[in-house]
Design brief:
about 180 residues; alpha/beta; Rossmann fold; four-stranded mixed β-sheet; 4 helices; about 25% strand; disordered N terminus
Length: about 180
Amino acid sequence: MKLLAAIVLFLSLTACTYVADRYSTSADNVLAAKSWTGITLNVGSFTDGENLSGPTCNYKGPINTVDGESYAQYIQHALVTDLKFAGVYSETAPVTISGVLKEISNSTVTGTDWTLVVELTSSTGKSITLREDYDYNGSVFGTADSTCGSAAAAFMPAVQNLVGKIIQETPESLM
């Protein structure tokens, strides 16, 4: 009986892992990239910044990407996906942009939001830092599964917005 109680106690204290959805192309991002005139772009590596720690949900457990890639790689693949759909991605493009994910955080305690900050560097020598503060409709009063599940589900649209900012800024700031 004591063993059973110990097992139940252990399982109740064990953290859960929450998983963000796989990236889905943004029609707005694709249309914005299609409007580039005569521009093709290559995307280099995106890396996590120094001392960057992955977000957790109310100390209940981490929020991971569905394919186990880093958050920076998730953003890189999202950008490549939207550029490919727009027909402006090319591995032989004259300009390559790379990125460093400087900040990633989410809140499910006092509000429901994601913050993503990425520093982009172009092979032209130009650089820019972009920030996405994405508020989503979630509850801070729900169960761990509902609040943390909502946080995980909101990561992908937060990345879509960040990729949209990258696409919007690239012709003027990185070319």
